[in-house]
Amino acid sequence: MIKELKGKLLVVANNTWNIYNFRMHILNKFLQEGWEIFVVARPDEYFRYLQGIPNVHFIPLNEIYRTGKSPVQDFRFLNELVGIYKKVQPDLAIHYTVKPNIYGGIAAQWVGIPYIGIITGLGYPFIHNGWLKKLTSLLYSIGLRKAKFTVFENEEDPVLFTKLGILNSHKVISLKGCGIDTDYFSPRPKTRKDKRFIFTYIGRLLYDKGLQEFVDAAGMIRKKYPSAEFWIVGAPDQENPASVSFDKLTEWVFSQQITYFGNAKDVRPFIANSDCIVCPSYREGNPKVLQEGMAMGIPIITTQTAGCRETVDDGEQGFLVEAQSTEALYEGMVRMLSMDELEMQIMGHKGIIKATEVFEANIIAGQVFEISMAAVNGSQSILKKLPVSQQVRTNAS
To answer: What domain range is 337 assigned to?
Structure first.
């Protein structure tokens, strides 16, 4: 007997890499609950992972350009989305990343589809004040205007959105990131046997992630602690204005201040062989790499800024330092180097506990599903069930 499907969900993001790396646990939750899923994204090598999954359909986007600023191009993207929404007629749409949130929201309004916007981080426009921030704020306010709920991955971004007048706070919910699989990211022994102390940065190579401060602090540390090493895992993001150039990356490598490993599909060996995961970012949604490091029992250094300070309790799972300060980052690293092995183990264990209790993927997926059902049913009760939403409204007032 064929099981009757309960509804159709449309999930829109800028590429399938984003879906595969951050959203699969949410898709699995909907599948378990009997929903049919349509993934709408620009195809890349990761779309093959969606093939063969029962009740999952992939619809490629042809007109999305992540950082394009052409109104004509954006109109073509909007028109493409409207055509997809009319054809699929989903019961709910969930939008991720900037342009899908803006133009997906407009398309859903035109077609009459209930939708949720999920803001995973504010990125370049909100770190660098200027005309782009004003334009992005205006477009967000249009795209999110009729969203059933707007969901953020930290508590500070929704406060900023309400203060800027982008959103009305009564439909805002804050979650603790996108969730991580704590079975996949679990403690494992180091494969190296040497006495080096490894600080590791994992992520896109952006100046806004604090890469310059990381490299400069590495040079300062190595003069005093020759056994310390600094690893970078990731690649430049040439579509982002804050991307580190290949020339600058080459300069860093040949200065011997850092060891560069390029991009890695599986970061677990790098995390496991590190003594400290470092994320000196200027602003984040809720850094997944820090959650992964904590889940694997590795102490953290990150910054006193939106998203980052929610992940780590200073002195518990790691240390918080001032953002955009090489000196503060250097001092945090010295502090980490001064800890004995038992202190490091205790700090790592506290990270495992928090990752399991707060950031576990199944917890976040369950919350997103509850929010989605509230959106479909027209209920506002979810706002009372998730207490952080009340704090967001209080802070915004």
So the answer is: 197-359
